[in-house]
Amino acid sequence: MLEVKVEHLGAVQFEMTAGRNKVVSDQPESNHGFDEGMTPPELLLASLGSCAGYYAVDYFKRNKLEVAGTKVRVTCDKAKNPARLDDFRIELDVPVELSEEHRKGVEEAVHRCLIHNTLLHPPKIALEVRTASAAAK
Questions:
Q1: Which helix (H) or strand (E) holds 22?
Q2: Topology annotation, domain 39-124
Q3: Is the pTM of this model over 0.85?
């Protein structure tokens, strides 16, 4: 089981902890934040982009292709009713020319990305609200 703990730091800032690693999420000043960290939607895009990049670089390494300079850009649109992100686009910039075989191979590799597949097949999400008295038991 994967676990991330999130703690409110004040204002609209949160600290996420996974094992020894920490990341701060914030909002821009226009949303009452200090703009000292990515927003939750940006973190989602970063998660998708870094996962796609991981699978692409893994493919390149296995096929003895250059990996230095590999870049990923992820964009999406905001949608309404309900409020959500939609129309994700992943752009993969690679440092070398790819044959058609390697282009297809890296596309297949990126499509195996855990975050990509999670977004394509939405998970169940359970919510449990615990009050201070219930948490102390």
A1: strand 21-25
A2: GMP Synthetase; Chain A, domain 3 (3.30.300)
A3: yes
Q: Are 56 and 95 in contact (CB under 8 A)?
A: no
Phi, psi of 32 (to 5 degrees): 70, 20
C-alpha R_g of the chain? 18
Contacts of 41 (CB under 8 A, 6+ apart): 76, 78, 85
Neighbours of 1 (CB within 10 A): 2
Domain ranges of the chain: 1-37, 39-124
* DSSP codes joined into one string, 3-54: --EEEEEETTEEEEEETTEEEEE---GGGTS---SB-HHHHHHHHHHHHHHH
The tokens for 30 are 């226009």
Burial label, 52 (beta-carbon count in 10 A; 0-12, 13-18, 19+):
buried
Confidence bin at 133 (pLDDT 50/70/90)? confident
